[in-house]
From TrEMBL:
This is PTS glucose transporter subunit IIA. PROSITE patterns: PTS_EIIA_TYPE_1 (PS51093), PTS_EIIA_TYPE_1_HIS (PS00371). InterPro entries: Dup_hybrid_motif (IPR011055), PTS_EIIA_1_perm (IPR001127), PTS_EIIA_component (IPR050890). GO terms for molecular function: kinase activity. GO terms for cellular component: cytoplasm. It comes from the Bacteria. NCBIfam families: PTBA (TIGR00830). One of its GO terms (biological process) is phosphoenolpyruvate-dependent sugar phosphotransferase system. It holds the Pfam family PTS_EIIA_1. Its main location: cytoplasm. Keywords: Kinase, Phosphotransferase system, Sugar transport, Transferase, Transport. Transmembrane segments: none annotated. It is found in: Cytoplasm.
Amino acid sequence: MLTKFFNKRKLQIYAPVTGEILTLDQVPDPVFSQKMMGEGIAIMPKNGNIHAPIEGTITLISETKHAIGLLSNDGTEVLIHIGLETVSLKGQGFTVTVKTGDRVSIGQLLIEVDWEYIRDHAKSIITPIVITNSAEKKVQHEGTKECLMGETVIMVTSSK
């Protein structure tokens, strides 16, 4: 019984982009601020593209290229939603470099983003990173205010 307790695996989730870390309640969109999609954090990007925050498999690429879903080896579901109200851009400003079913490694390029275009044509560039199956996971925020893509651990998950 104790071995099960001590062997809880933890998944480190790395920053998919460099920027300032925000709590979800700071996101000006109720879907994210009220955690309807799940627990997580958001990043106000400073620069760079979107990279894999975990090792896993691409499970979703939205038709409008503004969101991407990944499944980790331990079953954690991670959704990266680039900007707010970016679905209306109909894919402009995004170049996806992977496809559904691809295995990816931490730091691997997923989506090239034209931040200037997004800033000019969408509500916000704030990028929520959400654990969509957080009801099944314990999600711990690391409390950092700034993050570097592929280097900063922004969240840790484990089974409940």
